[in-house]
Amino acid sequence: MRHPLTTTTPERCAAAVSDLFDVVFQDLESWRDSIAQAGASTRPAELDALVESLVIPSLTLPHPTLIGAGFIAAPEFVHGRDVHFSWWLGPLESNPLLGITTVPTRLDLGARIYTEYLRDVRQLEWYSIPESTHQRHVTGPYVDHLCTCDYIFTVTMPVRVGQQMIGVVGADVSVRRLETALLPLFLAADQPLALVNAVGRVVISTEPTVQVGQLAPHDGAAVDCAGVPFRVLISPATPSRD
Amino acid sequence: MAADRRPGAREAVFAQLNDAGRAEQVAQRLTDAIILGVLSPGERLPSEPELARRFGVALITVREGLVILRDTGLVETRRGREGGSFVIAIDAQHHALLRTRLRGLTQVELSDIAVYFSVIVEGCAARAAVRTSTLDAERLAAWLQKADFTSTASARSNAGGFFLELAVLTQSARLVREQIQVQAEFGPLLFLGMDDPALRERIAAGFRAVVPALQAGDGALARRLVGDQVQSLAEWLLAAKARVERGGQLDETSVDDNNA
């Protein structure tokens, strides 16, 4: 062993994944509570001001984990026909849809161009699952062509007042940033590892034949990541070619 | 990925532009969107600074582009708090512009566009076939089942959406961006054939056949099916160009054209 002091275990890798998402969950919980507590104003402008004040600090950290965040209000709550997006995007690198931005920008639905497109947003996984399960949910990894045009996770949590869900708070985490944070640790393990989601889609891998984005069939040993629908596969099988 | 959303054409209208002749490109992009019905009459365009940001060009370039559109009579600018640039509805004129647009493109350009588009979506289909989870396929099937292909506008929007969803299923952000770009540039033209009810129906059936191919992991079949749909669209476009060049109409209203 050339680096005996730098080795880690699959369990530690799994725990690091959980820890990273825990921070996101904590953000969401505090936003959820603030919004539910605020009683909350059902007037979009006031709601927006509140949500903006809540999410901007997390989007403007020096090395933010989040690339977008906000609250999506149920139509009934804002007395509208459609859901109401109080959603902010962190600074974006070159992006064919949104250009380049250096400060957080509001996801722009006011110009009508997205309205038709988002009409059935309540059927999207990141809204429908928390709505039906009353639980937080991690969607992805998936290519989000709605907001960021990037390969991301969307973490959402229902906001409930009494028995009613008034919307979901959510945050986007890019796969790239997750990798930057976790790959060194994964590389320090003795065996090849692959982080996969619930359907076996690869997020991070130290086995070159098992690549990000593909589905990795796996019967071997694996470690569940507590609190999130991910597993760390140990010595993942080389799959048939993509 | 999700059931029932209608991704594609609309936001793609405002995607970033290439370098040369940017004001003309702004005008062309918006002209295509208007004459092909992606932007509706009466609709307000995003503000000038917003357009500049979205297209990735200077404010002055957007203004020049809008001047071209105003001169063509496609938008009008209203002042005041409720002001902005609004799409004007003049169907006859739109039709004439569309014919002009088709005549302005050579056969070789149209064929080239079709090849380029086809190679991208065929590649997406092949890759999607090995990367689509059961859940993804079910969602796509559910979306497609409810997707309306009975009207021109919804068929265009849903065809764009379907091709974009194929790109999404590859898990490649680059392919998704490329698909958005290529649809922004050529989508309105390529989907012109959606005016034809028979073609709409055939393409919708073709799309529906793609889903089982994805589910079965049959990349070769998915690729072929997608390629066939683009081929149909390209053939319609070239036939329409031939009709226009002969001095006829865009639509297949003349019996002669069917027999030609």
UniProtKB/TrEMBL annotation, chain A:
<dbReference type="Pfam" id="PF22673">
    <property type="entry name" value="MCP-like_PDC_1"/>
</dbReference>
<protein>
    <submittedName>
        <fullName>Cache domain-containing protein</fullName>
    </submittedName>
</protein>
TrEMBL record, chain B:
<keyword id="KW-0805">Transcription regulation</keyword>
<keyword id="KW-0804">Transcription</keyword>
<dbReference type="InterPro" id="IPR036388">
    <property type="entry name" value="WH-like_DNA-bd_sf"/>
</dbReference>
<dbReference type="InterPro" id="IPR000524">
    <property type="entry name" value="Tscrpt_reg_HTH_GntR"/>
</dbReference>
<dbReference type="InterPro" id="IPR036390">
    <property type="entry name" value="WH_DNA-bd_sf"/>
</dbReference>
<feature type="domain" description="HTH gntR-type">
    <location>
        <begin position="20"/>
        <end position="90"/>
    </location>
</feature>
<protein>
    <submittedName>
        <fullName>FCD domain-containing protein</fullName>
    </submittedName>
</protein>
<dbReference type="Pfam" id="PF00392">
    <property type="entry name" value="GntR"/>
</dbReference>
<keyword id="KW-0238">DNA-binding</keyword>
<dbReference type="InterPro" id="IPR008920">
    <property type="entry name" value="TF_FadR/GntR_C"/>
</dbReference>
